[in-house]
């Protein structure tokens, strides 16, 4: 039984033995998807704890640091949405062949609240320096670059309207 099975099983407290296993399999079938002709399970989760994040976010993590984390079972501790609010599952990175991560946003929200904070001004030229500084901070990340461009053009448009 893996971590997800354990969390799913805890959401059926009155079942035991084979009835519990059947319930877990039934619930897992609701999360089956096909990607690249492979059968996978898709669960909505919330990250609860990810202590290794700083190592993986650094620009040049050493190979020995990554190997050490990998060999010691580094992973992401998550809450499985729709099952248990208190039981978590540890997704060990070495046991997951494919992992897609999305950040849920609400209407009107942007992906990165810290990105694209431009001054309120009536001269669009005053936006150039903050824009260039922020472009260098995203370091070629495609998603952040697109987001920053969208916010820049919005601020540029608002500045032109004030002229």
Strand content: 5-15%
Strand order of the largest sheet: 3-4-5
Helix-strand category: alpha+beta
Distance between the termini: 65 Å
Number of H/I helices: 6
Helix content: 40-55%
Largest sheet: 3 strands, antiparallel
- Rough shape? elongated
Q: What is the gyration radius calculated from CA atoms?
A: 22 Å
Q: What low-confidence regions span 5 or more consecutive residues with pLDDT below 50? A: none
Overall pLDDT level: 81
The total beta strand count reads: 5
What's the oligomerization state?
single chain
N-to-C order of helices and strands: HHEEEHHEEHH
Q: What is the number of domains?
A: 2
Structural features:
elongated, 163 residues, alpha+beta, 6 helices, two-stranded antiparallel ribbon, 2 domains
């Amino acid at each position: 039984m893996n971590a997800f099975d354990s969390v799913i099983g805890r959401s059926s407290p009155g079942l035991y033995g084979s009835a519990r296993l059947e319930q877990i399999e039934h619930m897992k079938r609701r999360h089956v998807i096909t990607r690249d002709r492979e059968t996978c399970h898709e669960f909505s989760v919330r990250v609860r704890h990810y202590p290794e994040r700083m190592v993986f976010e650094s620009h040049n993590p050493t190979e020995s640091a990554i190997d050490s984390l990998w060999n010691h079972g580094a992973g992401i501790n998550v809450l499985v949405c729709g099952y248990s609010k208190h039981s978590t599952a540890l997704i060990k990175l070495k046991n997951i062949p494919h992992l897609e991560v999305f950040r849920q946003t609400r209407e009107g929200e942007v992906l990165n609240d810290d990105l694209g904070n431009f001054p309120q001004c009536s001269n669009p030229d005053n936006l150039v320096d903050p824009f260039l500084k922020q472009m260098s901070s995203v370091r070629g990340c495609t998603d952040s670059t697109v987001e920053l461009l969208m916010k820049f053009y919005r601020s540029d448009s608002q500045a032109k309207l004030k002229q």
